[in-house]
Design the sequence.
């Protein structure tokens, strides 16, 4: 979780713990490996939420996956080097989500997509994996 957020307590803590209980390291490893195969770049993870977060947070892997789904969707100029500014990283994540969104001509239903904050701030990594799995099914 981002260091600038207050420590969760009460219902918020219970919800976070329940979500963490749904994490499946094997599913995460499979999803990340699948992404790597699609973008032509071997990706491996130890299966922890933190490791998956680090792999995907800057948005470049997801942007490359978006271009696998819809070639040329994200201009090469945005992928020439990994962005270091948070808003640029979140922009790439948002472009990936737009590419997948069925309403925008993508293959994944809106209900199966994560939100940018889910990944960027490591709020709901379970949903991130569910989105990748949904893409894999289509």
Sequence:
């Amino acid at each position: 979780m981002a260091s600038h957020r207050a420590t969760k307590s009460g219902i918020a803590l219970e919800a976070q713990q329940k979500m963490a209980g749904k994490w499946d390291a094997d599913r995460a490893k499979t999803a990340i490996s699948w992404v790597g195969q699609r973008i032509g770049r071997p990706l491996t993870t130890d299966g922890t939420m933190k490791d998956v977060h680090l792999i995907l947070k800057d948005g470049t892997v997801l942007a490359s996956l978006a271009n696998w789904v819809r070639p040329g969707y994200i201009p090469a100029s945005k992928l020439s080097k990994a962005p270091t500014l948070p808003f640029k990283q979140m922009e790439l994540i948002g472009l990936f989500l737009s590419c997948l969104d069925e309403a925008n001509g993508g293959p994944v239903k809106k209900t199966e997509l994560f939100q940018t904050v889910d990944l960027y701030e490591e709020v709901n990594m379970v949903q991130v994996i569910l989105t990748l799995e949904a893409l894999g099914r289509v």
